[in-house]
Specification:
The complex is a heterodimer of chains A (612) and B (312).
Chain A lengths: L6 H13 L1 H18 L7 E2 L19 H18 L4 H10 L3 E10 L11 E11 L8 E9 L6 H15 L7 E8 L1 H13 L7 E2 L8 E9 L7 E5 L10 H14 L3 E3 L11 H20 L15 E8 L9 H16 L12 E5 L2 E4 H27 L14 H28 L1 H7 L4 H18 L4 H5 L6 H23 L1 H17 L6 H10 L2 H15 L6 H22 L3 H20 L3
Parallel strand pairs in A: 4-5, 4-7, 7-10, 8-9
Antiparallel strand pairs in A: 1-12, 2-3, 2-6, 3-5, 8-10, 11-12
Helix pairs in contact in A: 2-10, 3-5, 3-9, 5-9, 7-9, 8-16, 10-15, 10-16, 11-13, 11-15, 11-20, 12-13, 13-19, 15-16, 15-20, 18-19
Chain B lengths: L14 H8 L6 E8 L7 H16 L7 E5 L34 E2 L5 H9 L18 E8 L1 E3 L2 E4 L3 E4 H13 L5 E7 L15 E5 L9 E5 L4 E5 H11 L9 H5 L4 H4 L4 E3 L13 H4 L23
Parallel strand pairs in B: 1-2, 1-4, 2-3, 4-8, 8-9
Antiparallel strand pairs in B: 5-6, 6-7, 9-12, 10-11
Helix pairs in contact in B: 2-5
The chains are: A alpha/beta (612), B alpha/beta (312).
Keywords (chain B): GPI-anchor biosynthesis, Signal
Pfam family, one (chain B): Peptidase_C13
InterPro entries (chain B): GPI_transamidase (IPR028361), Peptidase_C13 (IPR001096)
Chain lengths: 612, 312
């Protein structure tokens, strides 16, 4: 007989499962964490390599000569920016036209749900300027984009200068097979969102923009340039985009290959990679780099102007120039050559980048971990939930002999109701957490001396905390639940959490893993029998809000900019407001996921803890 | 034996025997079928390979009317070509093999396995123009050159289909039975090229390949200005060898087998002569690569009503 159909063997298996459930769960958890930490260990990673045949090696000759002139153009841009008090539209249009591009502008405006600290008003208005370099002999079916943001103050002037210098140089070459669009966007991500929506004729976020007069075909790849100094010591590659989406790894491989060819220092997450992987400090450096990527991906916000392209299946990355205290400096001509080489290689593409991985983690720029290697870490954590669910199922199916419960026939209907009520109430609380902060900000501002942003954030925190007080009294009002009713609720909650975390990890592994790290122990060990005060404290520590607080501090530590508690708290509040704003502006899914699904799930476990 | 336009001593042989030796090679006309099977810009070198053999073959006398040139993609006019209307075979742009008067018979998507086999066997629809036909007879020496991406027993056409070595051998057998060739020289420059001539079984076939089974044929001449490899190694050295051949050259097949030894090619070129009825040393390069008009000056009258026995 088979293993599962033989009653003796089945009973033995079941008893094994119930006896060893807690130890196996602990072992799984530690194995999952160990697997995750082991991902950064260099022998377990693979070296990056170019997968796309059409891009091949770095076999091009870069000849961009005009770095100094580009910097001069950047200074002109800065002067006109100051004079115009924003985007110098006329000057940009004239300059791009003189370089032989077809220039168009786009006006956009957006009403923010609440003014955040960057834009202290409700309405954001701006103009994007873009010039299209038509391919001399090719049909206008494909395009590449190079963008630089128009930032207030002294930022990114050199980026616009290099962009215009490259435009002039590219115009003189005959080998372009795709149109190249040079875009200068205002208000960073808001302008970029307006441009992309206009280009693709979609309107997902309710923005107001004027239609684009000129178009260049479907965009194959895009690079966003951020350069704020005349010389740089290293170039940083930013990959994380909206909702944790990453561009195809071939784009990072291309960047790294050219960095090596030209001899520029290249970093990811701002950290230069080290060669001593077998020493403790080398390994911890790789872990820090990987953790930074995980945290940036989990936040779900786009970390550069490129982040919004990914949603349209356009591979994009941001290249930031960093000027730190190093001896060897790279000038603008070299940066221009690097970009020229990358664009010549992207020009050779025949299809969209698809040969390499879309899901990966990078402990350094030359090594990566693909989804097949990092998913088992999450799988081990999800296994705990399944084991717990199995255990509960067995307990519910075979009631113990010393049971004083009413007979099983009476359990069915109160059972369903005892599960439904907490579910409905926690989800209603989640809906309140999602909708109330923005809707009640005016009332809050009237009654309390806070700004709109603070009102929103504090309302969110207030609703969150109120949810803690709510559920565990509702039962007494409705009916007396059966003794083991909490088991049914816990079974449902554990399976719900497993499905939720599984789906999240598939789309955004980092978010799923971080939530799993904190929520799985909660789900596994909470019962009404554990000591209430201690477990309540632990549950609050492991709740999503506190996880976010700790993550903020950890993130600052990893970036080697540790903050005091008060600064960290203010940063935490701004992170919450940014999350709500990202959701309203670009459709980031982290805030609705946490408010509508993760928080109610956590409340279910809170309910179980206080079950009477 | 016979020379074009040069003086020689009065031969002691009987004119009839002279005439016999006149036809010693057995062929009266030359054809060439040159095929490049890969497309896309990064396969520039395959087009350059084919065009270099085309250039040599034209230079040595075969006219366009006797060459069927099949190029699967247009590199000269590709949008990515920084030097439009050129295809270079040497880096630093020494030699433009696209030239001034290239005549491509099958271009782009017309280069398919079916079209290739129809050209070889002659089974073409009546509307096919003459330039696209291989109008060979039983006295034609044919040079067939294939290049592209291949594997063990197959050659890839256009990234979408393959021709197997069995199909190729059967096509040659059809050609033999229809008396469409006198002798045939088959050259292939792909990875594992030797597998393509393993299955030949028709007489009078000689084959050369750039690499053995299990070996890759490597590319050569990386050019940074154009951004691709310009040639494959075997054909690059073949081109160098052919540049030294002129129409009256006496170089024979044994010299051709020595082209691109392992030290230059990294792969091991191979050849197959067991089906060839003549001794390879007696087969001249110009028997296949050129169209040599033989001229014999004789003072005597030769009676051609009696059959001339050729001395082989």
């Amino acid at each position: 007989m088979g293993l599962l159909s033989d009653p003796n063997r089945r009973r033995a298996l079941i008893s094994l499962l119930t006896r060893l459930n807690a130890p196996i769960c602990v072992v799984c958890y530690m194995a999952g964490v160990a697997w995750f930490m082991g991902l950064a260990f260099e022998p377990f990673t693979l070296r990056t390599y170019m997968s796309e045949n059409a891009m091949g090696s770095t076999m091009v000759e870069e000849r961009f000569p005009a770095g100094e002139r580009a910097l001069g153009t950047g200074r002109e841009f800065s002067a006109h920016k100051k004079k115009a008090g924003g985007m110098p539209v006329d000057w940009l249009v004239k300059t791009m036209q003189s370089r032989g591009l077809e220039v168009f502008t786009q006006r956009f405006s957006r009403r923010l749900p609440f003014p955040d600290e960057d834009k202290e008003r409700y309405m954001v208005k701006g103009t994007n300027v873009y010039g299209i370099l038509r391919a001399p002999r090719a049909p206008r079916t494909e395009a590449l984009v190079l963008s630089a943001p128009c930032s207030p103050g002294d930022d990114n002037n050199q980026a616009v200068g290099v962009l215009l210098g490259l435009a002039q140089y590219f115009r003189n070459q005959v080998f372009w097979a795709k149109d190249i669009i040079f875009l200068v966007n205002e208000h960073d991500l808001i302008g970029m969102q307006a441009w992309l929506e206009g280009y693709h004729h979609t309107n997902t976020t309710g923005m107001d923009w004027s239609p684009l007069q000129g178009r260049g075909g479907s965009i194959q790849a895009a690079l966003s340039l951020e350069l704020s100094s005349d010389v740089v010591t290293s170039l940083d590659l930013v990959l994380e985009g909206l909702n944790g989406q990453l561009p195809n790894l071939d784009l990072a491989n291309l960047f790294y290959a050219f960095c090596q060819k030209i001899g520029v220092l290249c970093t990811t997450q701002g950290k230069l990679q080290r060669n001593d992987w077998d020493s403790v400090s080398g390994y911890s450096h790789a872990v820090q780099t990987m953790m930074l990527m995980v945290m940036k991906q989990a936040s779900g916000r786009p970390w550069g102007d490129h982040g919004l392209f990914l949603r349209y299946h356009i591979e994009a990355a941001t290249i930031k120039g960093i000027n730190s205290f190093r001896q060897y400096k790279t000038d603008a001509t070299t940066i221009g050559r690097l970009l020229e080489g990358m664009y010549r290689k992207l020009n050779n593409l025949l299809e969209r980048l698809h040969q390499s991985y879309f899901f990966y983690l990078m402990p350094s720029l030359s090594h990566f971990v693909s989804i097949g290697y990092y998913m088992p870490a999450f799988g081990l954590l999800a296994l705990i939930l399944l084991l717990r669910a199995l255990d509960l199922w067995i307990q519910l199916a075979t009631p113990p002999t010393f049971n004083l419960n009413p007979p099983p026939s009476q359990m069915s209907s109160p059972g369903v109701l005892s599960v439904l009520t907490p579910l409905v109430i926690s989800h209603l609380t989640g809906v309140a957490l999602y909708t109330l902060p923005i809707h009640f900000q005016e009332i809050a501002v009237e009654h309390f001396p806070v700004s709109e942003t603070e009102a929103v954030v504090l309302t969110a925190i207030a609703v969150y905390t109120a949810g803690l007080a709510l559920p565990h009294n509702t039962h007494r009002g409705l009916f007396v639940p059966p003794f083991n009713g909490w088991k049914v609720l816990k079974l449902v909650a554990v399976l719900y959490l497993a499905v939720l975390l599984g789906c999240t990890a598939l789309i955004n592994f980092s978010l799923g893993f971080i939530l799993a790290l904190t929520l799985v122990p909660v789900a596994a060990f909470v019962t009404p029998d554990v000591p209430k005060a201690l477990s309540a404290f632990i549950m609050v520590i492991l709740s999503p809000a506190c996880t976010l607080l700790f993550s903020v501090f950890l993130f600052q530590e990893l970036q080697e900019m540790p903050v005091s508690f008060l600064d960290g708290w203010m940063l935490y509040l701004s992170v919450i407001s940014q999350g709500i704003l990202d959701h309203a502006l670009y459709g980031s899914l982290v805030y609705p996921l946490v408010a509508l699904l993760v928080y109610p799930c956590w409340l279910l476990f809170w309910n179980i803890l206080f079950w009477k | 034996m016979s020379l074009t336009g040069s003086t020689r001593r009065f031969s002691p042989l009987v004119p009839q025997e002279n005439a016999g030796q006149f036809f010693s090679s057995g062929h009266t006309n030359n054809w060439a079928v040159l095929v490049c099977t890969s497309r896309f810009w990064f396969n520039y070198r395959h087009v350059a390979n084919t065009l270099s053999v085309y250039r040599s073959v034209k230079r040595l006398g075969i006219p366009d009317s006797h060459i069927v040139l099949m190029l699967a993609d247009d590199m000269a006019c590709n949008h990515r070509n920084p030097k439009p209307a050129t295809v270079f075979s040497h880096k630093n742009m020494e030699l433009n093999v696209y030239g001034d008067d290239v005549e491509v018979d099958y271009r782009g998507y017309e280069v398919t396995v079916e079209n290739f086999l129809r050209v070889l066997t002659g089974r073409l629809p009546p509307s096919t123009p003459r330039s696209k036909r291989l109008l060979s007879d039983d006295r034609s020496n044919i040079l067939i050159y294939l290049t592209g991406h291949g594997g063990n027993g197959f050659l890839k056409f256009q990234d979408s289909e393959e021709i197997s070595n069995v199909e190729l051998a059967d096509a040659f057998e059809q050609m033999w039975q229809k008396r469409r060739y006198n002798e045939l020289l088959f050259i292939i420059d792909t990875c594992q090229g030797a597998s393509m001539y393993e299955r030949f079984y028709s007489p009078n076939l000689m084959a050369l390949a750039s690499s053995q089974v299990g070996e890759d044929s490597l590319s050569h001449q990386p050019d940074l200005a154009i951004g691709v490899h310009l040639m494959d190694r075997y054909t690059f050295y073949l081109l160098e060898f052919l540049e030294d051949i002129h129409p009256s050259s006496k170089a024979n097949m044994n010299d051709l087998f020595k082209v691109c030894p392992k030290s230059q090619c990294v792969s091991t070129p191979g050849h197959r002569t067991d089906l060839f009825l003549r001794d390879p040393g007696s087969a001249l390069i110009t028997d296949f690569f050129g169209s040599v008009r033989k001229v014999e000056i004789t003072m005597e009258t030769i009676n051609l009503t009696e059959p001339i026995h050729s001395f082989r």
